[in-house]
Amino acid sequence: MKEKWIQRKGVLEEMISWIFMLFFFTASAFGNEIELLNQWSLLDFNFPYGSGFQAKFKPERTFFTGVEITDDRIFLAMPRVFAGVPASLAFIPRNTPPGSSPPLEAYPSWNWHLAGLEGNNTDCSQIVSIYRIRKDSCNRLWVLDSGVLTSLEDYRPTCTPKILIFDLKTDALIRRILFPREVLRPNSLLTNLVIDESVQGACDSAFVYISDTVAPGIVVYDSLKDTAWRVTHPSMFPDPDFSDATIDGETFTLMDGIIGLAHSPNLGQLYFQPYATDRIFSISTSELRKGPPGELDVLPVTLLGRKSSQGVGLTIDPTDETIYFAPTAETSLASWNPLTNHQREYRQHRKEMSGFNWLCIVMSISASTWKLSESVPSRSEEGISEIFNWTQLEFDYPSEDARQRDIDNGIFVPGRAALIDVDVYYGAREELNKVFVTVPRTRDGIPITLGTVTANNSADGNPIIKPYPSWGWHRNASSCQRDRLIWVVRIKIDECGRLWVLDSGGRNNGQICPPQILAFDLKTDTLLYRYEIPSSQYEYRSLFVTPIVDVRDEECNDTMVYVADALAFSIIVYNPTLGVSWRATDETMYADPNFGTYDIHGISFDLLDGILGMDLSPYKPGSDRILFYHAMSSITENFVYTSDLRNRTRFESNPQSSPEIFHVSFSIYNVQLRWVHGSLFRIWNHVYSYP
């Protein structure tokens, strides 16, 4: 046994030494593409100052084998197969930029990971070494701790294997489960688990099926009765004919038994596979739940099918019973539906899915990787799922008397306000998520212009909107106080957790205050930036509607904001670091009189709005970005390279100095373009009459 671990250690260390890219991919069952979410050349952590973890950290020996995705976080399990792994469980925020390399946060805190300090006597009440984690329907994280340290060096069983259950709302430990000696073997290595909530109930009534990879078998845990038993079968053992694996030309020996698990609650089946095999097996979960098998009992295991090569990860789409797996030799993801025999392969560039990259990918497939959109509005038969609806907007007044006073004074006219824009912030925990909405003051009687949707409803069922950041920002608009919000059309939340607010300062009743750009830190709801646009950069007719935020670094220091002026036909470029802005204009931003007449549902009106819809091409380090834009009353789609737009010297003396940098991409005839990321707020005003 020791020879096997030493052999695995040598090969894996050799593979790690020549390639350091770790990828986390997710694929949709409805398409053939694989989406890159995050990547690291080497994993890194937010270390506590002066703790000693960083000094012991060996990034070249730290990689993840388990992934679980919640509404606001992506959890990663990093087993301590080598020394030098500071934390065996960590997370990153879910809303990080695609392709970014965010540092990992130890979970639930660094105090749980003292085994990462070499020489420390391991406290078995803490986290030792984790391969897999699972989230249940009660928003709790089940953490399977193998209790084995340095399994690819000297294989040290250090603590009794256990399951830790954390409440994801509070991150508090709510249950600890120690496995009894009779279900373990001297060389047991518990690596994977699935939670079955389909039989006797959810949460603490669930069954859990756990793989023992080195002493092959399945441990069944009855959470309701707090009992466990063990079953085994020859299909769970490695096949010597498949002990050698080749990834991207590198061959190594890996005689691992059962590791991949997937559960179909609809069919009542547990699918499993050893690593060293080309087969996938299944067994009815009713057989597993019978209790400890008798001495002569034989498990009724079924051979489900054969694969092209070995594999680790296994998961299932419960909507159609499609099984997903990752054959190592092909460096690809594949799927097979045992009910329809439909097969599909999901490929990525081999350069990115080679060597150790691919080993980490196939080890990290879990059911949650196919559920990234579980908290996002899903498709329905109607095409769009409804999240909120209002018969009229209602606001979070401190009392009914305060609401009535605003009505009596004409500050609030029920039924007059309308939503224009929306953006969503995903906090570190689900309860910190916020849905932001804008309410432009198109007429009198609209008490706020920016708010968040609360979980509370009015008496007639309308979701209540809370003023952001507070009521004080929306009162006494004419005084132009420093902390003010007058007339907000569009907002933008960037990848740094900042809310950018574009306040036009007034429109329908004239320019009340200077237009301004603000940014709030959404973790603390504090103001980070406030910038009044100089009067030399706008006109009496200006209407600032759309902010686009361009972030170029992980520290969020290299940031620019592009602002559309729909009626003065220009773009304002704002540099928050320097606290300066400049104006650029071009004929491509103008409204076209030939397309100024609209007809919507039989209602005809004229609208000569210029540049409104804007959006950026994806950011790739070392490459330029393109700002796409179009005028509302126009049929052309246009673009400009941001390197030209960010060049302040071009426009300091003349905003119209560089017509050569603005390009027409294409035209669509007979229809006006409404959005790239734009809104129909002015059309709304024309089509619908207010009380």
TrEMBL record:
GO terms for cellular component: extracellular region. Its main location: secreted. Pfam families: MRJP (PF03022). Keywords: Secreted, Signal. The keyword Secreted applies. SUPFAM superfamilies: YVTN repeat-like/Quinoprotein amine dehydrogenase (SSF50969). It is found in: Secreted. Transmembrane segments: none annotated. Belongs to the major royal jelly protein family. This is Uncharacterized protein LOC108744136.
